[in-house]
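Hi V.,

You were right to ask for the full record rather than a summary. Here it is.
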Amino acid sequence: MNISGGAAIVTGSATGVGAAAVRLLASKGCNVVVNYTKSEAEASATAAACEALGVQALLIRADVSKDEDCKAMVQAAMDKWGRIDALINNAGRTKAQPPGDLDALNAQDFHDVYAVNLIGAYQMVRAVAPHMKAAGNGSIVNMSALGALTGEGSSMAYAASKGALNSLTLSLARQLKPEIRVNAVCPGFIQTRWMENVLGSERYAERVKEMAETTPVRKAATAEEIAEILVWFIDGTDLMTGEVMKVDYGLRFGTVAPPGAGLEISR
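Predicted structure:
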């Protein structure tokens, strides 16, 4: 798909991966919806950065867990541009859970997390699908997580919601073909403010260092690097749908010893 001159919605795009994705889309000539729920100042700055690249940006406050907000966001884009070529479901929610502490989560926590991570994604797809079908071409990318495949992450509710999102991706790809392609990306740790807020500053800094020292790729992913993968599913290939891409930085091969570990140094 040539996204230049098109229009895309990226949910949760005030900061982090979502902001990096709308900026990348804008750099390719795509008009964008910048969506936020709380971070208005950051969202405004992101929209301004997109417009500085020569495209139009719609700044929309909307909670994807609310179906009426999803429909309104899509309608605003249609009213503005008359088309929606791509959707990235990036909005996410978690509830931190200490390892092994099953009492840290209750039923409402699961409902809250699923409402954004799974139901919100479904509601956004349902809202854009008729327009993409009518146009005969569309691409949807769901931001999942490596924890969906490993059971790790900030909480069991988060990992489970992303596992469900992966299954939803497969179902949607089957049911929306051939006009609409639906894929998911499952990254591990990413250097974002969201991740720092979840982990706390000290543990976040430790994780950045650990990733740089022990992963086969020797780095902790940035928001921009993950955004490149998300956008690749939109304008990099028309051949993939129903793909759930694992981005584990080579950890399936095992961790690598930190530099100097196990070496004897003679004097």
